[in-house]
Design a protein that fits this description.
The chain has 11 helices and no strands.
Length: 275
């Protein structure tokens, strides 16, 4: 990718850069307990051990597809439209960011197609209702051909965050910082969560309450989808974009970015269905 072709910094530049605290690493360390809650949820434990029911997997897939259809594409498109591509001083950085966002947009389209391929092969349901107490009544209206009947309130909150953050980036002097941090935080926590699930994969015979064979096979594909090297590299590229922001602790930009990270943690902890 373009970032790999940049010249290596001079030793003194590298030393100066290394003295600046990394926002990404600071957040992961400062909120390590909260990160653990978001990425080691009982749902992920059951998924990794292949003890997840088809019904629970369907419930989660339905909500994740809502997020992928209603929020993520609009968010990324808003960030793309906000890029200062016509400003020469920022042209190189903006072009590199554009490449990353274009990949993110292509990848989410591929991901929704991947979701659509699951029902005929594994009999999962992409129109699974959440429990009555978790339904968002604002989404009881007809959604046309979009799959899924109702959003959980936590899914709606995630979609609202994506759309509002993207819209803010598009305002005059709105800035890209919060949007880039939001993209990285979501993808980093997602990747970490499924890596945790992958680390728990047992022999089928060791499961006390094994998933049925089709559900186990679906989980195999889902876990591989979010732990493969291509996705790992995408997450690393998102982190490099955050580092390029050169956020300085104590500034308004850092504080707003930190609030975004904390809110993503809150949402991620609650996005996984209770067992």
């Amino acid at each position: 990718m373009a970032t790999e072709q940049q010249q290596k910094p001079k030793p003194q530049d590298a030393q100066a850069s290394s003295n600046k605290p990394s926002f990404a690493l600071t957040m992961l360390d400062r909120y390590s307990d909260e990160v653990r809650l978001a990425t080691e949820h009982p749902f992920l434990n059951a998924a990794g051990r292949r003890e997840l029911t088809r019904e629970k997997l369907s419930e989660w897939l339905t909500q994740d597809r809502f997020y992928a259809l209603h929020g993520y594409p609009k968010f990324v498109a808003s960030l793309i439209s906000a890029l200062p591509l016509a400003s020469p001083p920022h042209q190189t950085k903006a072009t590199e960011t554009l490449a990353l966002l274009a990949y993110a947009l292509t990848n989410i389209a591929r991901e929704t197609e991947f979701f659509d391929s699951l029902p005929p092969r594994f009999l999962v349901d992409l129109e699974a209702d959440p429990s009555p107490e978790e339904r968002d009544v604002r989404f009881k209206t007809n959604l046309g051909n979009l799959q899924g009947k109702m959003m959980r309130p936590i899914t709606r909150a995630f979609v609202d965050l994506l759309i509002s953050t993207g819209a803010e980036a598009g305002r005059i002097d709105g800035g890209m910082e919060e949007g880039i941090v939001l993209l990285w935080a979501m993808e980093k926590l997602y990747n970490t969560a499924w890596r945790y699930a992958a680390s728990l994969s047992p022999n089928p015979a060791s499961s006390r309450n094994p998933s049925d064979p089709r559900t186990s096979a679906a989980l195999d594909e889902l876990i591989d989808n979010w732990t493969n090297e291509e996705f790992d590299e995408f997450v690393r590229e998102c982190e490099r974009e955050v580092d390029k922001l050169e956020l300085v602790e104590g500034t308004d930009q850092w504080e707003r970015a930190e609030e975004i990270f904390k809110y993503v943690l809150y949402l991620e902890q609650r996005f996984w269905p209770d067992l």
